[in-house]
Amino acid sequence: xxxxxLKCAEGHKFESWFQSADAFDKLRAAGHVxxxxxxxxDVEKAVMAPRVSTARKKVRAExxxxxxxxxxxxxxxxxxxxxxxxxEANSEYVGMEFAREARAMHDGDAPxxxxxxxxxxxxxxxxxxxxxxxxxxxxxxxxxxN
Length: 146
Description:
By secondary structure, the chain is α+β, with helices and mostly antiparallel strands.
């Protein structure tokens, strides 16, 4: 396994593991390597310093600490993580019943409350056409944050 520092055409930097350098080249050529931030597939290897392991590792206070992969890599990712946590804490997840629940609240057949969930694009479009206010979330609903 080999880890590469990668950079997309938009300038986002991220890292990923590959079975080999050839595996990276084949996956990239097939369009299967995508930016972890924007999803773009125009990804190149970024310049990276080699990791040298020593018997004793001294960490100085001024050296940056590696962050866990689950931690946001940018202010934009941090803002999305905060938005997701706020939505999850302050509204009810209704899953694929979102369109039905939103329509029932709009018609007065269900109590008004903050909900989020999933809907097919056609169902969301119908809600908007009916004057029911809905908005897409910039994250995938249904997966609880760790």
